[in-house]
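#structure-requests
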Amino acid sequence: AFLSRKFTYTYLIIIWLIWLTLGRGPENECYDSDGGLFCIGGIWPADIIDAPLHFFSSLLIAPVFHNSNEHIFFVSIGFLIFVQSFEARLGALRTYFLFTLFTCIAALIMATVMNTLDLIWPESTLLAEGFSRNWMGGSAGFYGIIGASAHQSRYVWMIPAIAISFESWNHFLHGISLFTSSAHMISLICGFILWGYWTGNLRQSAKN
């Protein structure tokens, strides 16, 4: 079982070792530079303009750090339900590649949209709230895997529908940030569309 799910179990071992030893990790090792706060353990949306090298390096580092017990439990459950099942069919390398790809896409789109909106509405308190925090953890990546895994099911739309329903509860009732929920949904949609076209499922559906 381990060999068929190497990425899932290796990732879970790494994130729990980090959480139990370092906690939130390098996110807290921040320093001021030209009036800005730089922390390597999290993805800061302003960095895509102010410090692009830092932004892109954090895309690979931030997914192994988490910001709370609830967050790491949520990611762990998502991996044990969805990612391991996807990996058992597609293999570790492709699953890791897609996980990283969807994380990067969600972060790039969110950071670009936020910085663009900041030019239009610089006084927005909602945007200021988004820029004041960073993103970390594996949730954006595994939402993309959830979207992709829909094409392994007989009922293609069922898995995305469940994920969207859960995220609606997560945002509107549980109170998760609008920016975090948006990143989750961007990743879910990208996973569903990109993997659907790669496998031919969506093209086949369009013909039918």
